[in-house]
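Quick one, tokens below:
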């Protein structure tokens, strides 16, 4: 049998493919703003060729970016194979804002880019270089399918072109490593590989049974904890939250907006009231959503509004590819108007959910899908999407707390994007970087035409919470509302 190479997608990775349709795009992304001067050619335009050369010099460290989807025969399970037709020029794209190139225009452009599905016949990513942004700035708009990476993985992947110093990478002076795509397997080879994988399952099961027989108490406790976790995950995943104007059928078009707040002020609020940085951010967002729904004519105190929080379960040393997350659903205290009491209730809620085994149960279900058939987990994901167990997704990814550079250009800001699920017209992503927290608001174009009001409310709630907890006016630096 000849040499070939392929990798199976996990049940969680496959679920992001299965949940996608013409209106529900399952790619994550970001809008990063840079100082443009170091990226310019002598004639003043962006040096796109230099950026491509930097990516070519480092892409071998993330081979998934040169792989495409294929499917096994019979079971039709998705796999990764090297793309023999890979062309970097297809994935790295270049555009320019019309003068004056303000942030509002950049937001509109990002919304249009995020509205377009990725071509499944090619590696599932795009990188857009945007010039013409006022203030001698440029932007990089990235878009990567969620079946490839999670939020934490996407941060790790920035090392392709990012450095902690403004000097150029020494590899740019060398020819890029020669890439030879590995042959894709034939149908017969994939069937043989699948049969071999199935044959190994009884061996693993027998080893687990031997361990259980030798350690009955530990085995019973582990079984009980996992079963309890699965039950809690099923209950959280199938109990509907309140209907809201944010939970309506969505179309393919997106609005993207953002704001940024001072991380030091958030930490001061956390120190004054307890909890975590994430608790503070969720409390701020809860107040903003309450204001937003009130303007839509709803009494937030009468609503059971929940957020799904992806929980990073990536072990130390795990590669950045694929998804290593579990899900935790928390109720947002929208009915509490006082910002300090709202934060206290948010802390109580997140602590209660962390004490539960909900996230561990979701991870167990993912592992069962990987060990048996992925359809088990995928059907649960489909059912959960339809039953509305949460109203929106809120994801928080920690980034470096020091400046980073792309080819000598300092990254000034980075606004993340999380995809929208079925009947969910709003998703909020958070990214902390160099003393700031950047909010990225992704919304359906038609369902949330007033997205800017939610962004403004977020800034106002941040100021109110910091003022109430720290005992002073919120610091200057709330920026990005346009």
């Amino acid at each position: 049998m000849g040499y070939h190479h392929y990798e199976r997608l996990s049940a969680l990775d496959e679920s992001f493919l299965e949940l996608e349709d013409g209106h529900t795009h399952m790619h994550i992304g970001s809008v990063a703003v840079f100082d443009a001067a170091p990226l310019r050619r002598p004639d003043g335009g962006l040096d796109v060729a230099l950026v491509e050369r930097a990516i070519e010099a480092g892409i071998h460290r993330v081979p998934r970016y040169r792989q495409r989807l294929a499917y096994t025969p019979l079971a039709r399970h998705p796999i990764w194979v090297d793309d023999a037709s890979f062309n970097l020029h297809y994935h790295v794209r270049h555009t320019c804002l019309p003068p004056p190139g303000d942030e509002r225009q950049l937001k509109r452009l990002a919304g249009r880019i995020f509205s377009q599905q990725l071509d499944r016949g090619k590696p599932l990513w795009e990188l857009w270089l945007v010039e013409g942004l006022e203030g001698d700035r440029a932007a990089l708009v990235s878009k990567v399918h969620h079946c490839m990476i999670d939020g934490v993985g996407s941060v790790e992947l920035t090392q392709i072109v990012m450095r902690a110093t403004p000097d150029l990478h020494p590899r740019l002076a060398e020819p890029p490593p020669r890439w030879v795509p590995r042959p894709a397997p034939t149908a017969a080879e994939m069937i043989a590989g699948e049969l071999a994988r199935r044959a190994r399952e009884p061996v693993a099961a027998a080893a687990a049974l031997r361990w259980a027989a030798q350690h009955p108490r530990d085995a019973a406790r582990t079984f009980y904890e996992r079963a309890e976790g699965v039950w809690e995950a099923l209950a959280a995943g199938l109990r509907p939250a309140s209907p809201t104007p944010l939970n309506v059928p969505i179309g393919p078009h997106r609005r993207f907006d953002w704001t940024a707040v001072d991380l030091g002020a958030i930490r001061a609020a956390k120190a004054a009231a307890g909890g975590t940085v994430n608790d503070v951010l969720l409390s701020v967002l809860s107040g903003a959503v309450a204001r937003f729904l009130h303007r839509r004519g709803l009494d937030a105190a009468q609503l059971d509004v929940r957020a799904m929080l992806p929980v990073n379960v990536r072990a130390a040393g795990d590669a950045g590819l694929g998804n290593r997350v579990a899900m935790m659903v928390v109720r947002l205290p929208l009915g509490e108007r006082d910002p300090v009491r709202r934060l206290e209730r948010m802390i109580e809620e997140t602590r209660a959910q962390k004490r539960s085994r909900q996230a561990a149960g979701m991870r167990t279900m993912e592992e069962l899908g990987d060990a048996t058939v992925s359809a088990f987990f995928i059907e649960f994901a489909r059912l959960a999407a339809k039953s509305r167990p949460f109203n929106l997704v809120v994801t928080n990814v920690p980034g470096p707390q020091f400046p980073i550079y792309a080819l000598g250009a300092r990254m000034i800001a980075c606004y993340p994007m999380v995809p929208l699920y079925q009947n969910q017209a709003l998703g909020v992503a958070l990214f902390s970087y160099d003393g700031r927290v950047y909010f990225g608001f992704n919304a359906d174009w038609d369902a949330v035409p007033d997205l800017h009001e939610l962004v403004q409310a977020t800034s106002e709630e941040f100021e109110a919470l910091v003022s109430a907890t720290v005992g002073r006016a919120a610091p200057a630096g709330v920026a990005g509302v346009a």
